[in-house]
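Researcher: Next sequence.
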Amino acid sequence: MPERILVINPNSNTAVTSAMDRVVDPLRFGDGPRIDCTTLAEGPPGIETQRHTDGVVTPLCDLIHREDNATSAFIIACFGDPGLASAIEITDRPVFGICQAGVTTALNYGERYGILTNIDSDVNFGLRYLRMAGIDARLAGIEPIGIPVTGLGDVEPSRKALCEAAVRLKASGAEVLLTGCAGMTPYKADIEAASGLKVIDPIHAAVTLAIGAVCQH
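Model: Next structure:
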């Protein structure tokens, strides 16, 4: 079977999936693994609460089960890593959550990392997950921009809010930043210019790790 990496957007927002596809395009190369991006149709438009996270686990695992024989590695492309533990239990393929992949990559660039997120309610949710995953010790902060997932297509307000939040995270001691939503991907260069900090796109980070995993076989 040719190597294939499946990047799953657990929300139903196809514009976010398209943004993911553009992020991973530079990682597609002639003799490398095929990289496909897909949308979980059963998901909410944006995953922004614990209830949203819990609700996508079953359809996400069903999708992984259906695609298992045709896939070499899976990426769960939501920053809360919904269903990661369950997915690992149902497949022998490697499964990467973009939060864990993004944080571990970020720590190669700085001692403390900061996360850009969408809305205020994301903060406690994010802190809870980082503690559960054991990757919170070097967190400088999580900064909401006040714009939900579905609003990130509104370019000027999104760019301004992201850049301002990045500057606040730098003031809090962050040495490297992560975009906490795939919809933030188009603003990476703007955030770096405004903050002077390296910005890690966690989807890019996860797919890079997945390429390394599948190419070991």
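Model: The chain has a mean pLDDT of 93. The first strand starts at residue 4 and ends at 9.
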